[in-house]
Write the structure tokens for this entry.
Amino acid sequence: MSEHLQDEEQVEALKRWWSENGKSTLAAVVLAAGGTVGWQQYQAYSLDQRMEASQGYRAMTAIASSGSESARVDDLGEAIRSDFSGSIYAQFAAMEVAANAVANDDFAKAESELRWALGAGDPDSALGQLIQLRLARVLTAAGNEAGALAILESGSSAYPLGFALALGDLHFTAGRNDEALQAYRNARLTASALGVNPAALDEKIVSLESAAMADAPAGEEAAS
């Protein structure tokens, strides 16, 4: 599950979140601040809060990257969630704690953290869809196939390739090679539309196609 948490995905999700929500959030803050505190005072306070949350999160990811202080990652994640529960950094912190739990094969904790992160924001946003993708992978690893399928079969506008790949992996893990092959083929079509060509995906498809041909009766093989 090395693909479970990648810094590049988090950066992209953060950019997408700000693109989707930044202007409306800022406007709401201006309206709320008007008549109660000066805008400059609020702006300074808000900036301090964002900087503090950002610094805490950077420290957390640095420790997580070292792989040597698992408990410290959890402690920092809890602190960020407690002190900055309304910020996107709290969601990212929960995702980092979930990744830490996955590394320790604690799928129940990973699920709990991801469900908290999902409930802390808009599940239909790009970030919400990323959290759902990771939750589906955690549920798959934990053996909760029905829960994972419910997420993956709903599809994703922000991460269509990731959802298609995860669905293929789920079917493959369950031994449903035909369904896995179809999901991987769908993923390849999505990848082509996006202009990417993941070699690992082609390897999965070739492997399953070869297995299907080997298992096919001689008459069917000749007919194909």
About this structure: The CA atoms of residues 15 and 127 lie 10 Å apart.
